[in-house]
Amino acid sequence: MSIIAIVNQKGGSAKTTTAVNLGATLAENGKKVLLIDVDPQGSSSKWLKCLNTEKGIYNVFVENTSIYDNISQTSIEGLTVIPSSQWLIGIDKALASEVGAESILRRKLGELENKWDYILIDCPPALGLLSLNALVAANEVLVPLETRVMALDGLAQLLRTIDTVKERLNPGLKINGIIPCRVDKRTRLSMDVISDLRKRFNGMVYDTCIRETVKLAECPSFGQPITIYDSKSQGAKDYRLLAKELIKRKRK
Ligand SMILES: Nc1ncnc2c1ncn2[C@@H]1O[C@H](COP(=O)(O)OP(=O)(O)O)[C@@H](O)[C@H]1O
Ligand SMILES: [Mg+2]
Fold this sequence. Notes:
Layout: E1 2-6, H1 15-28, E2 33-37, H2 43-47, H3 57-61, E3 72-73, E4 79-82, H4 91-94, H5 104-109, E5 118-122, H6 129-137, E6 140-146, H7 152-168, E7 174-181, H8 188-201, H9 214-218, H10 226-229, H11 234-251
Parallel strand pairs: 1-5, 1-6, 2-4, 2-5, 6-7
Antiparallel strand pairs: 3-4
The structure holds adenosine-5'-diphosphate and magnesium ion (MG).
């Protein structure tokens, strides 16, 4: 079971877009996927029409309920979700006196049998307690990076945080890779960012680039991953390639 935290403290770096569409394309490959939404904004839960006030990750963190009771089926075969809720906004307060609050998710995921091939954790745009829980629970990290802007400074900070978590809390944690997202091949900036990335972090950077396309921006409003919204689109093609590359990397 690969437990993958999708992390980047910068908003708009395509974490949610990647969590949902990679979840869908992995499921297309016959993989069993559980997407855990730990962002209080609940974007991936809304996208997959799984927002549920009774159920979800808040219960897993704060009420001592079983993780199984908080899993929802999506309309995609093979893709299940533990939805977020707005209650997560108050998580720091709710867990203030909890010893080991950073490893709650890890302990809870320990209850899961080996039923899933991939667990993807969609993180909020901050390196707070929720992202920390994801990094402590995960065995791998995927970093989507928006290449339309100069995003490399933030990346250095993120990599330092990952190192610290590895050192102090989760020695088995590995960086699976950095995914160039929102790539606009017509602009110099996008291409410069990618070549810079490859120079500095060579083997870590995915060959697959996710291009900026209108269809990818549209599909959340229709409650569908890109593979259903427009199966033949560029975005669907890119995320299918990403799933294949991820599966290939796992075998290595
Ligand atoms: N490849 C893409 N093409 C077009 N729009 C994209 C693409 N990836 C992300 N977006 C859009 O960019 C915005 C931020 O993406 P999102 O996945 O929500 O980022 P994050 O979860 O990191 O904050 C959203 O409006 C999303 O629809
Ligand atoms: Mg998001």
